[in-house]
Sequence to fold (130 residues):
Amino acid sequence: MRMISAALCAAGLLLSTPLAHADTLYIDHTEWVQWGDLKSLRIYPTATGRAEAATPGTQLQQDQAWNEVLIVAPEADIPGMRSQFNCHWQFAEFARPGKTSWNLEPWRPEVSGDEMVAAHCNPGGTEEPF
Fold:
């Protein structure tokens, strides 16, 4: 979490970006993992991130959390990843509270919001087996 704080300060985001709670971080850390040819970005929310994600109407916090992800994993800024993140933010803590990580995969197809929800945030296949 200190790494995200330092990165946010270095980028000037803690001072210049209007944040929901300037001293609150929603993402503890991220980790890229690979199984065969498939990659997955595991996002580990903080307790505050989980609490906010479980609260309706937290779009500002969701946007801040995504910005935190991009600071530590800028390669996640590709089509489809933000939609997967939004789905996890909006539904993961309701469907599977306390899940260790929210996993986003760059190989998943871009789909509509309804298709994303119907696929439990994992369009194009089941959740990765690793």
Summary: The first helix runs from residue 2 to 10. The helical segments are 2-10, 13-16, 47-53, 59-72, 81-95, 113-118. The longest strand covers residues 27-35.
